[in-house]
Amino acid sequence: MLIIGIAGGTGSGKSTVVRRIIESLPPDSVAVMPQDCYYKDNHHIPLEVRLQMNYDEPDSIEWSLLCRHLNELKEGKCVEMPTYDFLTCARMPQTVTVKPHRVVVVEGILVLSDPQLRDMLDVKVFVDADADDRLIRVISRDCIERGRTPKMVIDRYVETLKPMHELYIEPAKKYADLIVPQGGHNTVAIQLLTDYIRSLINKDK
Description:
- By secondary structure, the protein is an alpha/beta fold.
- It has one domain: Rossmann fold (3-Layer(aba) Sandwich), CATH 3.40.50.300.
- It is built from 7 helices and 7 strands.
- It has helices at 14-24, 47-50, 63-74, 115-120, 131-145, 150-169, 187-203; strands at residues 2-8, 30-34, 79-85, 90-98, 103-107, 123-127, 178-180.
- The protein has a 5-stranded parallel beta sheet, with helices on one face. A two-stranded antiparallel sheet has the order 3-4.
- Helix 1 (14-24) packs across helix 7 (187-203) and helix 5 (131-145) crosses helix 6 (150-169).
- It is globular and about 50 Å long.
C-alpha cells in the first residue's frame, strides 16, 4: 500500500490535486482520508465554545486514531473513518467504511506537521498558492458550504488562519518531496506527480 500525504494552506487547491490523482489512476485504486474527518470529538463542549476553538493547530486533530487506521489498512483491514460537521464543530454519529486500496491519500492542511504521520508517508506533497488566492477560495467555500458571512471568514483569517499558517503549515513545506506551485492549476506538476505514483504502483506489482 502506497500512502501519499498532501498538505498545503487552506484554499491552496489540495482537493483539486487529489481529484486529478484519482482521475489519472485505475478505478477503485485510491482511498482518500481527509485530515478534517479526524478532528477531535468535542461534542461534550458547549457549541458557543466549540465555535471559538482553534481548528488550525495540530492539537485539534486526533493523530493517533488516523495513524492507527492507516496501520490497520496496511494490515488489510477495513476501518470506520469518522465524519465531522463543520456547522456544529463536532463529530457526527455516522462513519465511513474505508477498505484497503493500492493507494491511500491523506489530505489536509497539517498532514506534514505531525511527526508520526509524516514517518508513515511514502510520498509527501505540499500544494502551494498565493495567500490572496487562498483567501478568495476560503471566503467562497465557507460562505457557501459552512454558513459563514464574508466578515466572519475574514476575521477568522486574520485572527487564526494566517498566524497558524505561518506557525505550522508553511514551515512543514521543508518536509515535502514535491511542491506544487499554483495549486490545482499547475497541470505539469500534477502530471509529474501522477506519473511518479503510477510508476511506484507498477514497481510494487
